[in-house]
Design goal:
Layout: E1 7-8, E2 15-16, H1 32-42, H2 47-50, H3 53-62, H4 70-86, H5 90-101, H6 104-107, H7 125-129, H8 137-152
Helix pairs in contact: 3-4, 3-8, 4-5
The protein binds zinc ion (ZN).
Zinc ion binds at residues 19, 21-22, 24, 32, 64.
Amino acid sequence: MSSGNPAPDQATGEAVASCPECGALHIDGLTCWEQLGAILAWEWQDPALQAQHFLTVASYNLQHPAQFTDAALAGLRALFVEHLEQGTGIAEVRRRVGSLAEGSRRVLKPERERRPVLRRWRLTVADVYQAGDSAGAAQRVRDWAESVREELSE
Ligand SMILES: [Zn+2]
């Protein structure tokens, strides 16, 4: 499948849209961004999932790097790896994410400079969303984050 060509749906033969950057298929008409929103909404009912909030957002952002400046991306990636490998406390992560995010002009590239490039990943947000089944989502976030860490270091 080449970049930008939607995959045909097995059941209906209709084209299924996918994200031009992370490659996640749209599910139930939801883009990958909307699937992320649904997962974040589950956190209200699921403390185990809420505890993985940083990994959920970081995994998503690392699979959508075009919007970020190089410096912001490097900072996020370092924090992400450190959190996974050394279990950096969530309070420390929050503090540093806060300083990373303050002043959005330093974190986000101007829209005209963004160049999304399609990259294939073993797991994407669609594998966590799993057609809206929230059971076990916290573990799926861990698996997703670990796969992102591995593939970023390849
Ligand atoms: Zn995407």
